[in-house]
Each structure stands twice: as C-alpha cells, then as structure tokens.
Amino acid sequence: xxxxxxxxxxxxxxxYVLTCVLLLLSTLATAQPxxxxxxLGGRSTPVDFFAPTANGTIPIRGAVIIAHGFxxxxxxxxxxxxxxxxxxxxxIVPDLPYTMDSRDNARALRDLIAALRQGAAxxxxxxxxxxxxxxxxxxxxxxxxxxxxxxxxxxDPFDRPSHVGLDAAKVLATPAYLLRGPSAFCNAYSIAxxxxxxxxxLVKDQRLPEASHCDFESDTDWICEAACGxxxxxxxxxxxxxxxxxxxxxxxxxQVARATGQVQxxxxxxxxxx
Length: 274
What we know:
33% of the residues lie in helices and 22% in strands. By secondary structure, the protein is α/β, with parallel strands linked by helices. It has an eight-stranded mixed β-sheet with strand order 1-2-4-3-5-6-7-8. Strand 3 (62-67), helix 2 and strand 4 (89-94) form a beta-alpha-beta unit. It has a single domain, classed as Rossmann fold (3-Layer(aba) Sandwich), CATH 3.40.50.1820. It is globular and about 45 Å long. It has eight helices and ten strands.
C-alpha cells in the first residue's frame, strides 16, 4: 500500500524540543570560551580559554595568546580567537591587568605563558604564538622571549616614546610578523615603524592601505570607531587572513633554543621565508 499523508510518522514535540536544546548547547559549547579568573602580574584578571573546535578534522596545532589594545578588553579579540580555534588552536585571551604600564602587562603575559606550560588550559601548551594589537602589541613583544614562545605577530603595534619596544625588537629571538595601518593618531603616527629594521627574524612586514586602527579588532565597537576611524569588512577580512596565515606558518616552524643570547635550531630543516 503506498504511503499516505496519514501514514507519515508524527512529530514528537518533546523529542523536537530536546533536539533543539541539544543543538543549541552544542553550538554554545563550541562558540563560548571558558572564562577563568587568574592572578597575572600580581593582579586578578579574567582570561578566556577557547578550545579547538575543528571537529576532529584538523589536529591541534598549538596555542595562541591574543592581547588587546589600550583601554580595551578581551572581548575585542573574540572574533580572531574563534577563527583560530576553528583552525585547531587553543586560544587564550586575557584582560590585560594594567592600563598604562606595558612592562607590567608583559610580566602578566609571562605568568600566563608559564601557567599554560604547566597545564592551566588542561593540556600542556608549550608552543605558543603571541599576537598583540596596538599597546597589546608592545606588551606581547616585551614578553616574546619567554620560554615556550615560538612566534610573534604585531597588529598595528604601538611603542612608547622611550622606544622600549624598539629595544625589545632588537633582541627578539623568535620569528615575527607585522601588519600595520597607515600613519595615524591612534598608532602614534607609526611610532613602531623602526621595529621593521630592528627585528632580527622578521618574516613579513605588511601595510594595509587605508585601514583604520579599529580594522585590527574583532569585534570592534563605536567607541573605537569614534576615536580611531570606521571599519571596512574587506580590510577586516584581510586582517583575519593575515593572522591565520602567520600563525599557521609560525606554528609549523621548528622550536628554537635560547642560550647565551643566541638562537639555535633544535629540530627540523632551516627556516625558510613563506
């Protein structure tokens, strides 16, 4: 007997609701970070942990710490964190505990790196890429020679008039990427440009024409746009593409050893430019 409309299985309302709830919880589990209060640099601060969400199709590739800009918070880096987690990385995004002092924030980042190497995320993470935006680019640079760090990515980074970042750039032992916007008020008129010639292991320095300082955040807000210019989806996509490519390259490079101020290959083939 051919099936009729009356012979179709009836929808179970309870089962339907439970299925929807489970799908929602699954989505939230992959999209939402685990937030932990940690003591970093002598202060308590929230830290978001994004676990890899590649559904088992991509192996866990390592870890990334992302540092936000001046007077901003970890939520302005969430979009980048989710994208990296989807590519198979553990991503850790702290609220930097100090507003004005980049050296103290660097100390906080070194505490976070040490905690990750001791299993704070669950697994031991000892191959870590640092990404820093604006003033966070300075703090991450100051922390980038810490054990366990394998690379540095600066997003329209900032330096102090004392050029403390330039001094750190000269002795950075890890490979580095820079993505910079045009000279403008919010990047202190390209104050970090001298880093380009100072970084011993600079892989790539790229300018993003016509970018505003806010194009490097994800997600940004009206406060940043009011102070530093409007965003453009195409420029934001270019920033995201740069980040993913840089982290992929840095994570694939061999570990380096730091001894008596020198950088030595531990394993693998000599580094090559991408």
